[in-house]
Amino acid sequence: MDRGWCALVVFVALLPLHARGAEPPVSDESDECITCHEEVTPGIVASWRRSRHAQVPPATALGRPELQRRMSATAVPDKLKGVVVGCYECHSQNAAAHKDNFEHFDYRINVVVSPNDCAVCHPVEAKEYGGSKKAHALDNLQKNPVYHALVDTVTGVKTVGADGIHGAPGSETAKAETCYACHGTRVEVKGLRTVDTDAGETKLPILTNWPNQGVGRVNPDGSRGSCTACHARHAFSIELARKPATCGQCHLEPDVPAFNIYKESKHGNLYASHHTKWNWDRVPWRVGRDTEAPTCATCHNSLLVGADDETIVARRTHDFGARLWVRLFGLPYSHPQPKDGRTHLIKNADGLPLPTTFTGQPATEFLLAPKEAAQRQAGMKALCGSCHGSTWVNGHFAKMDATVREADAMVLASTKLLLQAWDAKLADKTNPFDEAIEQDWVRQWLFHANSIRYASAMGGPDYAAFKNGWWNLTHVLQQMHDWLDVRQPKAKKP
Predict the structure, then answer these.
(1) Alpha helices of 131-226 — where are they, by DSSP H?
(2) CA angle, 118 then 122 then 123, to 5°
(3) What integer pLDDT is reported at residue 8 of this predicted model?
(4) What one-character DSSP code corresponds to residue 23?
(5) Burial level of 149, CB count in 10 A (0-12/13-18/19+)?
(6) Segment (H or E) for 104
(7) Which residues partner with 203 through β-bridges?
(8) Bridge-partner residues for 336, per DSSP?
(9) In contact, 322 and 374? CB cutoff 8 Å
């Protein structure tokens, strides 16, 4: 057999079965699920049929060259190798760990598919994600008393009486529709309910705080996270995860305005104009050939290679902070990235679970050391350098570093005014979020300084200036000063 014919045989063998004119093999269990659910939930089945899971058995995926693989497992259980990844293959994994496992027409089924289940084929991705801030997003709100107080103050129902405003902590419903919609909920099983179907009566688990697809959702098997926050059910598309609107579900103004700024930036302009011409599904992603400008995924987690299809520009990661050296979002200042995704474990010099003190001293024990931070920034510069010259790249990062420092300095000025109000007993620091000057202070770091920092990093000038940026930061600082000036006795003015 000549070499050309051998190459053709190998090429055809690596094609998905549907591309070879063969029906992808579906397990008997999944086939039975489809028979019923094609009538009951046709949208889910149709979405799955369009997915790669429905077209490529794991054995075929394992045969691909390393850089082209979409699964990190080097082996999978024998019963999964030769069939496509269907309903049963996902909803039956690790049944003993799942408190949401139930008997469903002679099968044991889990309602919630968790990262631990996805780890059967994607162990590296699950492990990386499991250590990230995203996976611990719910704990980082609930187990940090400062953040938790902010959540309760924002979401609680207020009443007005003769002696002022009174509020109760936010209800679980209010939290689930606000902060926890993105951060995740704690999903627990509270018994069973009976449902009549065309196939007969069945009992389904009663789940609390469900539905939810927050990134830090705590699942009934004890795992943290939701892969479907980015790879939505049931197509689990890499294209969807790579497109900015997916990140834009949560990363929005006024507090985390990344998506809004991206749309305003030159990169966002290029995306809006040309994204229909890009190759969104290819692995690895070739800079300049498959994509013309970065999206969120390009900078934060995608596997990128040069035009030769071999030179690695950036390795894939599912820890979305792993490439970052600075955390632009801060309470109240920017700071080096945390070493651990469990940011509720941080303690600053004042004993608070915050990455800096109110006067800006970083909790260095819990944050990246300068050497590693510099290495990460150099890696991001190299990524930018796949399209831009070194003068442009170095100039951009120098501007960003200066802008972040200046925004932090403005937050410090605001914080000093708040500390004066507390010292003078003009505000009660028991809850640092419920009085007028305190809420103005929150605006400074949560909305306005964040807007400036993100705008500088991502190239959105209006968000650094008049749209939630410097104008607002300056205006609110003046408001805080005037509030204090009116209430503070003249002899004690700063």
Answers:
(1) 137-142, 145-155, 172-176, 179-183
(2) 100
(3) 42
(4) P
(5) middle
(6) strand 101-104
(7) 194
(8) 326
(9) no
pTM of the model: 0.91
Please give the single-letter amino acid code of residue 345.
L
Q: Which amino acid, one-letter code, is at 60?
A: T
Q: Which tokens is 142 given? A: 């609930």
| Residues in CB range of 177: below 8 A, 6 or more apart | none
Tell me if 319 sits within 8 A of 338, measured CB to CB.
Answer: no
- The amino acid at 308: D
- 181 CB neighbour count, 10 Å cutoff: 15
> Where do the H-state alpha helices sit in 385-429?
390-423
Residue 106's SS3 state is coil
Q: What 8-state DSSP symbol labels residue 231?
A: S
How far apart, in whole angstroms, are the C-alpha atoms of residue 87 and residue 93? 11
Is residue 424 a contact partner of residue 477, using CB atoms and an 8 Å limit?
no
- The residue behind tokens 């403005």 is 410
pLDDT by residue (tens digit) across 427-468? 999 999 999 999 999 999 999 999 999 999 999 999 999 999
Q: Contact at 8 Å (CB) between 314 and 325?
A: no
Tokens 């510099």, located at residue? 374
Distance of CA 318 to the CA centre of its chain: 10
Directed axis angle between helix 450-458 and helix 390-423, to 10°? 180
What 3-state class would DSSP assign to 98?
A: coil
User: What is the distance in angstroms between the CA of the first residue and the CA of the last residue of the chain?
Assistant: 90
Identity at 280, one-letter amino acid code: W
Residues in the chain: 494
- C-alpha–C-alpha distance, residues 40 and 48, integer Å: 14
State the average pLDDT over residues 255-282. 97
Q: What is the pLDDT of residues 90-124, one digit of tens each?
A: 999 999 999 999 999 999 999 999 999 999 999 99
Burial tier of 16 (Cβ tally within 10 Å: 0-12, 13-18, 19+): middle
350-381 pLDDT tens trace: 999 999 999 999 999 999 999 999 999 999 99
Left, alpha or beta for 288 (phi > 0: left; psi -120 to 50: alpha)? left
Question: HSE of 139 in the Cβ direction (CA atoms, 13 Å)?
Answer: 20
pLDDT band at 490 (very low <50, low <70, confident <90, very high): low
Q: How far is 332 from 81, CA to CA, in rounded Å?
A: 50
Domains, in order of start, for the chain: 12-91 (no CATH), 113-229 (no CATH), 250-492 (1.20.850.10)
Contact 384, 352 (CB under 8 A): no
Token pair for 18: 């549907």
Residue 312 pairs in a beta bridge with: 305
Name the strand (E) or helix (H) holding 110. Answer: strand 107-110
Within 13 Å and on the Cβ side, how many CA atoms surround 324?
Answer: 26
